[in-house]
Design a protein that fits this description.
The protein is mainly alpha-helical. It is 46% helix and 4% strand. The chain has one domain. Strands 1-2 form a two-stranded antiparallel ribbon. The structure holds heme C (3 copies).
Length: 138
Amino acid sequence: MNVLAKILLSLLLFATAGWAAAADQLVAVDGPLGPRLDIGKGGQCVEDPKFMRSNHMRLIIHQRDETVRKGIRGSKYSLTNCVDCHASKVNHSVLGSNQNFCQGCHTYAAVKIDCFECHSSKPREFRKASNLAVENLK
Ligand code: HEC
Ligand code: HEC
Ligand code: HEC
């Protein structure tokens, strides 16, 4: 096999089986037929995962209104916190494939969100230095 073929083959393997090996933990959501999501870093969620499954949108959307109108920041429900924990170690994002945490579940549930048009989908340590002035935005 020439070098190029080897590179292509390893990229292909990485894109398929590779994810399962490189990800920390794939969690099956909604039974065996549901998506398998890369939950990211691990640790403990800000609330019980069962509660989060049905209520996460209320926590962060409510806070957006509070933040933008009244300038409240940095609570435990900050979107930056979610992304720091739930970004995959494979591509350092909560988006990008149907195994990525936010995207995978939303594709499955046919939900569309616009949050990441402004907010960064990457954990703080992988954001561009030039953007650190507004640290939770792109
Ligand atoms: C300290 C790390 C951490 C933080 C911060 C965090 N999570 Fe979690 N989250 C987890 C872990 C670990 C789980 C458990 C996954 C499992 O075992 O089901 C989880 C579970 C969830 C689930 C349920 C997934 C499922 O299994 O159905 C949702 C939804 C969720 N988190 C959203 C969020 C949102 C939104 C935020 C920000 C407000 C957030 N999380 C902050 C670590 C974190
Ligand atoms: C048009 C751009 C834009 C969009 C789209 C947007 N936001 Fe924001 N968001 C902002 C700005 C600006 C702030 C305030 C910046 C700051 O606090 O640093 C903010 C702050 C926040 C905060 C508080 C700070 C933090 O890091 O947690 C949360 C939570 C939040 N937004 C959630 C969301 C969610 C959820 C969505 C999608 C439903 C969303 N935002 C969509 C611009 C946007
Ligand atoms: C376990 C599956 C699951 C995961 C993981 C998940 N979501 Fe959701 N999300 C949903 C479902 C289902 C809905 C729609 C619920 C409804 O319409 O009542 C939703 C709705 C939302 C909404 C509101 C959309 C709207 O316009 O009503 C926001 C904002 C949101 N999710 C943000 C996030 C973010 C940010 C992440 C990653 C940190 C995330 N979600 C991870 C399942 C998930």
